[in-house]
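A quick aside before the break. I want you to see a complete sequence-to-structure record at least once, exactly as it would be stored in a machine-readable document. Don't worry about memorizing anything.
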Amino acid sequence: MNQAARKRLAAMALFLLICLPFSLAQAQTVKVTGKVTDNLNEPMIGVSIVEKGTTNGVITDMDGNYSLSVKEGATIVYSYIGYLTQEKKAVAGVMNVILKEDTKTLDEVVVVGYGVQKKSSLTGAVSSVKSEDMEARTITRAEQALQGKTAGVQVLSASAKPGASPQVRIRGISSNGSCDPLYVVDGRIASDIGGIDPNDIESMEVLKDGASAAIYGAAAGNGVVLITTKKGKGNGKITYDFQYTSQSLGKVPEVMNAAQYKEFFLENKKLTQSAFDTYWDGKTDTDWVDEAFENSSMVRHNVTFQGGSDRGSFYLSLSHLDNDGMIVGNADTYERLTGMVNASWKIKPWLEVGTNNQIEHYKTQSVAEGNEYGSMMLSVLQLDPLTKPLYPIDDLPLNMATIYKDHKNMLGDGNGNLYGVSAFTGNAEAINPFAMRDNSYTKNRGFNINGSTYLNFMPIKGLTVTSRLSYRLASTSSYGVGQSYYYTDKAKRDWVEVSASDYSPTYYQWENFLNYTRSFGKHNATLMLGTSYSQSRSYGVSGSKKGYNEDTTDMWGNVINRVSHLGFLQNDPNFFYFAYATSDAVKDVSGGEPTYTRKLSYFGRLNYDYAGKYMAQFSLRADAADLSVLPKNKRWGYFPAVSLGWVLSEENFMKGTEDWLSQLKLRASWGQNGSTASLGGYKWNVSIGATGHLAVGDNNNFSYINGYAPSATGNDGLKWETSEQTNIGIDARFLNSRLTVTADISIKRQKT
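That is the input. The structure line, written in tokens, reads:
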């Protein structure tokens, strides 16, 4: 063999030696496929499957299936939140896996102020409502989800109009001012939660006792409702929810029919037989409830797009609600369009950014309610059954013909019929419900943009520093018309009145706080420290234009002639706007000055437990109000709290009860909260107001000067209203936590 051939042979051998390891490595790679299910044999979506020690991995699809190529003999890690992580040696072919629930991590986690806690370690009175509790309920507002789900919480409906906000009372009435609880949505203080679709809520926690709510200090005197909206999860998911609800009037007081009405007034000698013979046809027997109310509907559409991984998530939702009220016609309606965008992403293992936002646009129209003289329901109950709802103009009863002769502005249905006027109630406030409905109306519309953007910084193990900016932008406009009409001498309007208003509040809140968790053997502690600054700006303007009566009087002041000025170019709804008001219309404008409210706070909390048996929590919040609320020497309020817990079921003397008793815990707490609901507007200060004019000089040379006097005496001793609450409770869970019993005894006192 010559030298050249030997060189070629050596080069070929070297090449084979270099390639051989790669060939062997390629030969050792195997493909693993399979399906991941839970203990009910249901496929699990989004399970993380990773080759241990590498970044090589996939997640399961919609059917729980996966496919992954790994080195033969490598370890595959199967993990999913709430389930035990499993590791298996890779084998070529099919590897099906059943993941089991982690009973420790499944211990329900509840949201508390500026953090989360396991329910088993809570020492305060906290109730929780989860998303699954809301799914099967026909509710339009988030507050309604609390009805019947949380002990000690009342949800009262003061109005049945579509979109009406219910009143929530936590452990009764607890303030001289507003008794509404504090709402906190994803850490943001919310003035109203009507723009959140219930489908977008993950959980609602109610902080009922003083210790649980004390971390919110001056705003928590009436309790706190924490709302957490949904976050994205799974490998991309689209859902659509449709709800159709039929609504009808539940129950109204029973009233007299025509025969009973006649008998009652004859027996009491309030009316004579001749009156009935003259004004009643002997047949009319009107059921005003049936005439004024009808079955109505509520239609809601909700579509969501979501996805997530161990690095981040997104959740996008769009909802439309259309609710027609039970009043005949379309005088009471509520339409709402809402959107939600939630997203978060771990830029680095030590840095996470996120945002939660809700957008709402709404339109409402309603009828008069809730007062003694202008309520449609009151008219339904008071008007006699002998009067028809409608009478043709060419066939009016005697009493209506007399009225119509002098007053052509009587209300009707626009089809040649006038709304019936009772001949029996005289000038009483009870008028025809349809005249009540149509003599005036108010339309409201507006939008709300609410949200927060946050940054979580995790420099060391157990420490999370959060900076969160929350904001609220809103605008509400109102447009109302009072038409010219005549019903009786007490129910009339001789002119047209148009009113309009616009209100545009803004709010922002900047919070910075840290949570540090550390364990030392059986000792576990969590420290939270933070500060908060908030500012709200209110700005609104309102105005009205209306006609008037021009009276001519005699020397004794008696009206001898009256001329009514309509105030608008035409008595036509198309002209019921400010632009078409006449030059002599009466004008009124108010508002136009912005007002500000600011608050600065410092807060902290320490949680400690030993071996999951003995627990303690201490918290303190200091709030400072601005000078529009309290004087400088009273502006700071301090709100401490302490709570203790003892898990008896973890004690040695309770051994042997695990088969039927999952947990038994005693709780005790004491805390103070505050309120400034009755304050604001510089009530502590002495204010001066104009009192009129005074003429100065003689008859030939005089002038007017303005007069001023104190309009309020002021009180520089005003301070925070303080609510102090002591609570003792017991939590018990039986039969592997299938049955839960919670009982609390609380004493609540208001202090000043």
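Two observations worth writing down. The chain has eight helices and 43 strands. The first strand starts at residue 29 and ends at 37. We'll return to this after the break.
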